[in-house]
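Severity: low
Component: inverse-folding endpoint
Summary: output formatting inconsistent between runs
Steps to reproduce: submit the following structure tokens with default settings.
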């Protein structure tokens, strides 16, 4: 049994098709079929049910899949770390992050990290937190920034999680328009009467906001639904309506005005996660330290953000 056989097995399991898997691996289909056949002989068990136009895992294949994924992820980590120690290259970081964190915490981190470690190859995967946990499970990303709230908890494979900060969801409006509140806070009741721009239901942020309004018996006045973060902020800037967004996305955006919301449910926790059974390579460890440092700095700049990092 070797890594190439395991890589072929995992790809066939992922795609459910030998031809597509061979194309993904840039390998001739007969070669891939021989790899799988040899692996099955060595293990003494069939790994796939083979039917015309349909491939599915046997019980033996289902047992092997998570172990093969872990072995491939660990092998990749070893290769990266050995390459760094040998001076052949500075490594690679595959970072996953929720969309709202890509335009805030990730953007704050990458500029400095790139200056300090110009030889490190950076790959960014922007997905929701549940999808990122799936990608961590199969070794597609090394480390991920995920979010969760009381209304929208996130569970998954065995992960090492470092809680970085809690972040309030704030109401944001155009700085060119009159303030939506005379004080430093706005009530949920008043917020429900304002023209509200909301995200697609796929956003965990939307689930949190909907749950809070429902728990208090309010129906928000939605005037626009389904936009992405950048579009939402642009619409708010132009006075189309107000929006409820994480406090971090408003850093260095003077064209927008924010006000805190008088409800404890309007907050979320940001954590940094990696697989508990895979040792991060040196480059990944450097990125992890950079993100933790940036999160602490961001928390010092906004009272709506609270650091959870122990000194």
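Observed output (run 2 of 3):
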């Amino acid at each position: 049994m070797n890594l190439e056989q395991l890589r072929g097995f995992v790809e066939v399991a992922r795609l459910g098709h030998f031809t597509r898997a061979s194309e993904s691996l840039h390998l001739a289909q007969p070669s891939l079929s021989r790899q799988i056949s040899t692996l099955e002989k060595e293990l003494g068990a069939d790994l796939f049910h083979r039917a015309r136009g349909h491939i599915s895992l046997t019980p033996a294949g289902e047992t092997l899949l998570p172990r093969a994924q872990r072995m491939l992820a660990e092998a990749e980590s070893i290769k990266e770390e050995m390459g760094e120690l040998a001076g052949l290259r500075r490594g690679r970081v595959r970072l996953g992050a929720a969309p709202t964190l890509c335009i805030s915490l990730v953007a704050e981190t990458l500029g400095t990290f790139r200056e300090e470690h110009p030889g490190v190859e950076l790959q960014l995967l922007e997905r929701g937190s549940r999808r990122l946990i799936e990608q961590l499970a199969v070794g597609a990303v090394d480390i991920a920034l995920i979010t969760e709230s009381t209304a929208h908890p996130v569970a998954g494979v065995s992960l090492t999680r470092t809680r970085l900060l809690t972040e309030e969801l704030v109401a944001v409006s155009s700085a060119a328009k009159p303030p939506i509140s005379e004080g430093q806070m706005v009530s949920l009741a008043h917020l429900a009467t304002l023209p509200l721009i909301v995200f697609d239901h796929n956003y965990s942020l939307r689930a949190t906001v909907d749950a809070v309004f429902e728990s208090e018996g309010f129906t928000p006045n939605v005037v626009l639904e389904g936009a992405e973060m950048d579009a939402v902020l642009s619409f708010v800037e132009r006075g189309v309506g107000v929006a409820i967004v994480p406090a971090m996305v408003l850093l260095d955006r003077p064209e927008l005005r924010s006000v805190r919301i008088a409800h404890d449910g309007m907050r979320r926790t940001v954590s940094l996660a990696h697989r508990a059974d895979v040792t991060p390579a040196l480059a990944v460890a450097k990125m992890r330290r950079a993100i933790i440092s940036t999160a602490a700095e961001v928390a010092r700049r906004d009272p709506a953000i609270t650091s959870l990092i122990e000194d």
